[in-house]
Amino acid sequence: MLNTDLADLKAYMADNPGAVIEDVARERRVTARAVIEALPSSMVRIGGGEHFAAAMQDIAAWGEVTLIVHTDDAIFEFTGVVPAGEIGRGYFNLMQPKGLHGHLRHERCAAVAFVERPFMGKTSAFVAFVNADGGIMFKVFVGRDETRALRADQLLRFRQLADRIAA
Fold first, then answer.
1. Could you give the CA distance from residue 161 to residue 167 in angstroms, rounded to a whole number?
2. Distances (CA, A) of 142 to 128, 131, 151
3. Averages of pLDDT over each 10 residues, the chain, 167 residues
4. What pLDDT shows up at residue 98?
5. Which residues lie below 8 Å from residue 57, measured CB to CB, with a gap of 6+?
6. Which one, of 130, 106, 90, lies nearest residue 57 by Cα?
7. CA-CA distance, 61 to 127, in Å (whole number)?
8. How is domain 45-166 classified at the architecture level of CATH?
9. Which InterPro entries does the annotation name (predicted)?
10. In Å, how far are 11, 94, 97, 120, 123 from 130, measured between CA atoms?
11. Please, which residues bridge with residue 68 across strands?
């Protein structure tokens, strides 16, 4: 990316920090990772992808969260407890027979991004697992309480995890 393009993207994200990351990436023909990295530094911290399993194990203890997979064709949302998992046969396997389960290609994770920013008039906090191509594998959002505020216990866990992984 040219320096002028990067400066323009950073200016855009400073003015529009709540923009949908995938939409900005598509419109500007950059990776989602580039969009995340263009957010104001106070809103994002990024750690290495080698922390995928540790991050997922920690998230499994947070309680009810929302996991989002955003593709060009659909946005899938799962609200519930992310199950614990383990590495086996080349995958990080979510160990649950019903609800959210599956097999994640953890070795393709190049970064774990921790993002706190305004979105649709509220503060949001999410962990984005970024793949080797700069795309977002999926995001896990800190849950909300009955008043629609971020759950304080999860926000604390989110920040502690960011401190460990993206120090």
1. 9
2. 11, 21, 7
3. 79 96 95 97 97 96 96 94 93 88 94 95 95 97 95 98 94
4. 86
5. 84, 85
6. 106
7. 14
8. 3-Layer(aba) Sandwich (3.40)
9. Heme_Transport_Util_sf, HutX-like
10. 22, 18, 26, 23, 21
11. 77, 139
